[in-house]
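User: Before I run my own analysis I want an independent prediction to cross-check against. Here's the chain; please return only the structure tokens and, at the end, one sentence I can use as a sanity check.
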Amino acid sequence: MEKGLQWETTWLDLPSGEHKKPEYLAINPVGKVPALIDDRVIVHDSTIINEYLEDTHPQRPLLPRDPVKRARARALEDYADAYLMPSLFKIFWQMRKSEGERDRDKIAEGEREARDHFAYLDRELQGREYFADEFSLADISFIPPLANLERSGFSIPDDFPNLKAWWERVKQRPSFNASWPD
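Assistant: Structure tokens:
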């Protein structure tokens, strides 16, 4: 929506292994989500999908023109994937289980790691409205993990005011509500 593109979303039930079924493996042989089908072109991985859309639809750019800000946006996008997401998954996978099956130690470990990430992100937002000064792929990369965290019953603690204010700004964007299922 940020680029003004129309799309159709197909949601997969990851806990049931729907992403490992032959129908999906024909789209992405490694069975990871997301994948984008653009006419006859199939693109895997959120980072590569975002770069592909940036290249094929340069109107409404989501990477800053300034090379320093552009590098910052890319570095923060990588941070979301490589650092924040694995910590939050420790929480997500446990919260999908019934109350009695949850591993409280794993949840606590994920929460401790998340706090460290939140502290870093809070510092990165000091004096900024968005991670690369303007809304970009850096911001977009944090939306799915933080929205899933919120849907799991957790929130960004109050002791990270920059991150919390950023999150509230992001949730006010029309694209946020348009991209999530009811």
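Sanity check: The chain has a mean pLDDT of 92.
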